[in-house]
Structures are given as structure tokens and as C-alpha cells.
């Protein structure tokens, strides 16, 4: 092979010259549009490495109609929950032709719609939405322009696929765990007030109490916001109310982190005075102080499944998606049996 030119960006014609093949052969190999002799393919791949070739994405889009980018709308880029799902998305994209373009919606429906429009204007090939407030009809409407995969919804069309967990069951499981430990005065710190996951986890909490003959006490339910500060403030509110409680089901793990600090500042020990259970099983929950008992949901695995599903929609090819793990209780050190002493 001749010495490559280093002072300009390599082109298909440079690769063809170095590899000793025609430009059309290089194009066919790059596009995967036809089978070529193994010796030619290896020569082209070697030339690509030698020339450090990078395809012109705009030219590729004009030729194929694909930008090879996937839009991802998260709510906050600093959210540990979103980061765990983004980690799964990143893993699934390794070795693929696609790259992610990430935007934040900040739990604001108008902002989410603007981000959807922005990503479509950027010619992404498909969009992943990590929960949010955009309604199902809007998803269907936008999917006429690009395929969409989303969490937090339960619709499936030709152009929309959704992933959801049974949040009511998860709330029931968390509360049932505390009931099985002998707790009867169980408080609940809710997530965002108009967010479906939070509403369903509250419903599961109520169902577990009522089915156990304990009864639902609205004075033991305090508003949070799925964040640490919300858990901290909610615990302070609970303690200040004078209402007796021996355990708390928090709407997510981040709420628990704040609640633990709030309880400590109020002179209450976890779990000796108050047992705590969260929801998510974020990576930090293993290392919190104390390590957190929680309901595990498959966040990372869902990120992987969403990418595979979206690429299948884009390429008009059904992908085999592995079945996601069931919700489960991970018992650590923030819960213990109730003791009246």
C-alpha cells in the first residue's frame, strides 16, 4: 500500500487508491449494500484504519436519509436514575453505527415538546424518551416523523414502543415488606404529585395497608419530589406533625437518602427507630449509610432494551429483546423487625 495523505480528511477515493479497489467497491463495503471478495474487504478495512477515515455524516444523510444519531430526552442529566438508564443506552450503542444526542425536559411538558421538535429538526433517526409529561397522543403524532421508544407509557403502535414497570405492585411489595416485619404505622413520602409512577406507587402502598387490615391514614402521607431535598423536608414535616410512625416507604431511593439525613438530624436512628425502604436500587444504595433496602427495578437493562427496540423500528427489523427482570426486594440494613422497646 502507498503512504497515506495525512494533511486532509480522507475520502472514499483515497481509500480506493490505497486499497487498490474502485470507489464503488469502497462504497458498497461502507454501506453494507453488497457482498464483495474477502480480500477486497480486508484491504479496504486496512486502508480505513491507515487513513483514519471518518465518514461525512451530512453527505451520508443526503444519500441514505439517515443521520445515524438517536435522540434521547431525559428529565435531568444529573439524575442518578437517568444516569443508570443512560449507562444502559450507552452500552447498547457500543459497536453500533449510531450515536446519542441528549436533551433534557425538566419535567415540563412544553419543554419536552420543544426538545422533541429540536431533535427531529436535527434529523435524528429515532427518539428515546425517559419518562416525562408528554401524553400518549403526542407520542403517536410525533412518531409519524420518527419512531419513538419511551418509558412510563403503555402504548404500542407500528411507530411507538413503550416500556413500563408495575409501579403499583412495587409500592405494594415495599409496604408489604414493612408489614411483614411487624410495622403498622408506616408513612409514605410521595414522588412528584402529577407523575404516574408516583401515583401508582402510592396506590400500591394503600392497597397493601388495606389488604392487611391496617387502614390508610392520609396524615402519614407526605409530599416529596423524587429528590433528596424532598425526602429531607418530608421527614422534618412528619416529625414536626407529632404523628407516630415506625417505618417509611419512600417513592424512590433518592428520597430515602434525604430522609436518612433528616431522621438523623431529628435524633432518630435508622433502622433502630425508623425502618426505611426505597424504590429503584440505584448503584449508590449499596453504599449509603446505612446501605438501603429497596425495590429493585431493571433500570440499566431497560436502557439496553430501548436501544435495541428503537434500532429495530428504524431498520424495519424485529429485534429479539431479552425479557426484563421482575421487580424484587433487595434487603440491606435500613429495615428491621418492629420492636416496641
Compact summary:
This protein is of the alpha/beta class. It contains 12 helices and 11 strands. The protein has 3 domains: 12-54, 434 Repressor (Amino-terminal Domain); 67-164 and 299-323, 3-Layer(aba) Sandwich (Rossmann fold), CATH 3.40.50.2300; 167-297, Rossmann fold (3-Layer(aba) Sandwich).
Strand percent estimate: 5-15%
Going by CATH, what is the homologous superfamily of the largest domain?
Answer: Response regulator
The CATH architecture category of the largest domain equals 3-Layer(aba) Sandwich
Strand order of the largest sheet: 7-6-8-9-10-11
Topology at a glance:
Elements: H1 12-19, H2 23-31, H3 38-51, H4 57-64, E1 69-74, H5 80-93, E2 99-104, H6 109-121, E3 126-129, H7 136-142, E4 148-151, E5 160-163, H8 167-180, E6 186-190, H9 196-211, E7 221-223, H10 228-241, E8 247-250, H11 253-265, E9 275-280, E10 293-296, H12 299-314, E11 328-330
